[in-house]
Design goal:
Strand order of the largest sheet: 2-10-9-4-5-6
Number of helices: 1
Distance between the termini: 40 Å
Number of strands: 10
Strand content: over 45%
Largest sheet: 6 strands, mixed
Order of helices and strands: EEEEEEEEEHE
Radius of gyration: 13 Å
């Protein structure tokens, strides 16, 4: 059974940066994609970024393009999300997924990591 452990969240001010990490254990690390989504206050869960494990091709939601960078290390079984120029609207609980279907359904399998951005 796949297990995901997100970390790296925190409280920052507008314009600052955070780097989220997701450690993957269990099988299926070799799934086709890995991704991050978030639960922001008062809104439905929304995708943030995904990366294809084969060619490393990233795809970003429009709201984070140019500010966030998703990357992975297959050997370390780790997924990262570098978040720069954070905005108040980036506040939320961030979850990683190790299956494409979980990204589509926004299914959380870890505890998530909280990001709070204030002015």
């Amino acid at each position: 059974q796949v297990q995901l452990a997100e970390s790296g969240g925190g409280s920052v001010q507008v314009g600052e940066s955070l780097r989220l990490s997701c450690e993957v254990s269990g099988y299926r690390y070799g799934s086709k994609c890995m991704a991050w989504f978030r639960q922001t206050p008062g809104k439905e869960r929304e995708g943030v970024a995904e990366i294809y494990t084969g060619d490393g091709r990233p795809i970003y939601e429009d709201s984070v393009k140019g500010r966030f960078d998703i990357s992975k290390d297959n050997a370390k079984r780790t997924l990262w999300l570098q978040m720069d120029d954070l905005r108040i609207e980036d506040t939320g609980m961030y979850y990683c997924v190790a299956e494409c279907t979980d990204y589509v359904t926004k299914t959380a399998r870890g505890q998530g990591t909280q990001v709070t951005v204030s002015s």
